[in-house]
Amino acid sequence: MSMTNRRELYRSPNGDSWFLGREPESGHAFVIHQPNGPSGGRLSHIALGDFLRGSAHGPEHQALLRLIGSLVEVPPYAERT
User: Long-range CB contacts (< 8 A, 24+ apart) of 61-67?
Assistant: First the structure.
């Protein structure tokens, strides 16, 4: 996957990184996890639903939820309920 098809979500203090990736042909999005070097550094691709399912309360999950939330703009005049 090229660097233009992913966006960093979170980098942990220990060097693990999480990215939001997109398959160019289909447009399907997924999460890429890259462990730090001492952990092997081997990339894994995780379906968005699997990433957010269950005990998804880590800072990398919160970063993805903030990114998703930023896609929704609420006009200043909108009624907030």
Answer: 63/9, 63/10, 63/18, 64/9, 64/18, 64/20, 64/31, 67/7, 67/9, 67/20
Give the model's pLDDT for residue 61. 93
pLDDT for 33: 94
Q: What is the longest distance spanned by two Cα atoms in the chain?
A: 51
29-34 β-sheet, strand order: 6-11, 17-22, 29-34, 44-47
Contact criterion met (CB below 8 Å) for 5 and 21: yes
User: What's the pTM?
Assistant: 0.76
Q: What is the mean pLDDT of the chain?
A: 85
